[in-house]
Amino acid sequence: MRLEIERRATRSSLYAALSPFIALALTVVAGGIMFAALGKDPFSALYSFFIAPLTSAWSLNQLAIKSAPLILIAVGLSVCFSSRNWNIGAEGQFIAGALMGSILPVMAPDWTSPLLLPIILVLGMVGGALYAAIPAILKAEFNANEILSSLMLVYVAQLFLDWTVRGPWRDPQGFNFPQTIQFSDSATLPPIYAGGAAHWGFVFALVAAVVTWFMLRRTLKGFEIRVLGESSRAGRFAGFSSRRMVYFSFLFSGALAGLAGICEVSGAINQLQPVISPGYGFTAIIVAFLGRLNPLSIVVAGLVLGLTYLGGEAAQITIGLSEKVARVFQGFLLFFVLGCDTLILYRIRLVSSRRASGEEAAQ
Amino acid sequence: MKKLLLALTASLGMIAAAQAQDKDPTLACFVYVGSHNDGGYSEGHDKARLFLQKEMGDEVKTKYVENVSEGPDATRVLQQLARSGCNIIFATSFGFMDSVVKVAKQFPDVKFEHATGYKTADNLATYNARFYEGRYILGKIAAKKSKTGTAGYIVSFPIPEVVRGIDSFMLGAQSVNPDFKIKIVWVNTWFDPGKEADAAKALFDQGVDIIVQHTDSPAPLQIAEKRGKFGFGQASDMSKFAPDAQLTAIVDHWGPYYVQRVKALRDGTWKSQSSWEGLKDKILIMAPYENMSADTKKMAEETEQKIKDGFDPFTGPITKQDGSVWLKKGETAKDETLLGLNFYVKGVDDKLPQ
């Protein structure tokens, strides 16, 4: 006996649309069982996870802060992944953007101008794009595997940031602690509305999602991306260059990751520290696939994932659920979403070993 | 009459408030940078939380959030705790500093306590322990115990806390053997068993026979155990990981401080302060002195007593690494200097990473 996965002959658009909801329902049921088994009230646990974070302006702001970098990065990655360019190094491009964008606030803290903030943001995008250009050049010119090169460059960026804040950019007033000076007010990304906590990064994320969606679905460029992703041979016949696409997709996603990085530093942290990301660049890969590489769905996916982070904390505080359990619950969600998506396109067949060996014999 | 009435209502109100305070348990909340059972630093704080819970029983309720990254995540968690009704919040990692300062400003009615930081406000106190007192004892033991006259020192970051430890260790060692040497390895992490173990191996390969660590995992001690060499535990008693290698350990003992502060909050005597206590106040305690001769053990115990009686390891004459005089004979270091300490004493063969 063995299991086989085979593609379904027809694709049900009804189930494709229902799939996320089925997954959510399964997560709620499985999570509820787990919470009950741990001796916690499943209803209050689920309430803390999904509802409590949506009940106050404060937590909605926090949700926007947490999901902004995830959405920005994932939208960029959707272009990469749609064209089959496996950029795994968004975390490094995030850091590179943060570093490049911090040049002015750290080295010229007294310079204030209305132009300062736009320049900082553009520098952040340039930083991310330049850093993404390295694996792109290696792939396009030397045929190096971009999964490895982009991933390895993450560690280089992390260590470079570490060195920068301990060395040349260390706050001279900071008792030798590894951090830069705080950004001045004019270098700080302001909140979306006065009194709120969420900064403009979330708006940038929404704009990026809409623009990218438009590009992917409604322009020739989007067609090119999808054709090259489906089959690079077919793309070549259409006159598209997969070499140029390597550059385009990496620079595009690198720029968005860099923008996410500088927004996080300028809007939320307000200074550089040895660690500026709890793994946004990697989590965004999950977000991109949760959103099925569609920029608009990615917005939803980013918000849902952000919600489970906040919910995990709320559950720790209100019902004393351990952080590990919160992570397991998050894992449930991802597992069911990806599982449901797979089962809509494929089905599992039990193949009896007798028949299978018979087939082999026939061959 | 009107004034009297006003005074009466005011005092009635105060009584009511005081009574309410007697009845309602105080909600004390904790934020950890690691997990509550990491075997080192965060576990030390969580044990202290349980100690607080046990000591004060119904008078206190505790909550904690673990694995909180420094930066925006810490700010959010602190805000969430303050909003959820915590009366006092202990932020137990240095890296939470700017987040605590920010959130303390937003919630003036909540009291905040930040471990090992240096920024205070009306509702934000800091607390730390004079761990360097313990390191002085470690230095003396190492100098007496070592056959090679050289100890290895595994360190995290060149911050004042760590530099103080190195200097104090060196002064202790020099008081036994003026030519004592240390080899320093910076691993740039507080907790990374792999890196810490590699550093320990490299040090033993270079001929040291005792290692000291200012990182949190028991990995270096486990290497010492394997090689038949010696070391000291950090933050908690690590003898179960290395029964034949641990000479003693500097054990963090935050519990009594937490009890004292929560009690102060309940009687209304809580004030912002910068607490920096030592061996005498039992905020750090020495694990049993083991795997050493009776003679060495006696010296260690006497030194511990001497420090409890008021001896300061940073008592002159002390010369800086560059040969200039830091403290004249009989002079002791000021707390401000120690808090920002960024130079070595004479005899340390290393350059501070700049």
TrEMBL record, chain A:
Cross-referenced InterPro entries: ABC_transp_permease
Any one Gene Ontology molecular-function term assigned to this protein's record: transmembrane transporter activity
Membrane topology: Multi-pass membrane protein
A single Gene Ontology CC term: plasma membrane
Keywords: Cell membrane, Membrane, Transmembrane, Transmembrane helix
Pfam families registered for this protein in UniProt: BPD_transp_2
Presence of the UniProt keyword tRNA processing in the record: no
Localization in the cell: Cell membrane
CDD domains: TM_PBP1_transp_TpRbsC_like
Chief location bin: membrane
Bilayer-spanning residue ranges: 12-38, 58-81, 88-108, 114-134, 146-165, 197-216, 246-269, 275-291, 298-319, 325-346
UniProt protein name: ABC transporter permease
Organism encoding this protein: Pararhizobium mangrovi
From TrEMBL, chain B:
UniProt keyword list: Signal
CDD domains xrefs: PBP1_BMP-like
Domain ABC transporter substrate-binding protein PnrA-like: residue ranges: 28-307
Presence of the UniProt keyword Signal in the record: yes
InterPro entries according to UniProt: ABC-Purine-Binding (IPR052910), Peripla_BP_I (IPR028082), PnrA-like (IPR003760)
A Pfam match: Bmp
Signal sequence range: 1-20
Superkingdom of this protein's organism: Bacteria
GO cellular component, one term: plasma membrane
Protein's name in the database: BMP family ABC transporter substrate-binding protein
Protein species of origin: Pararhizobium mangrovi
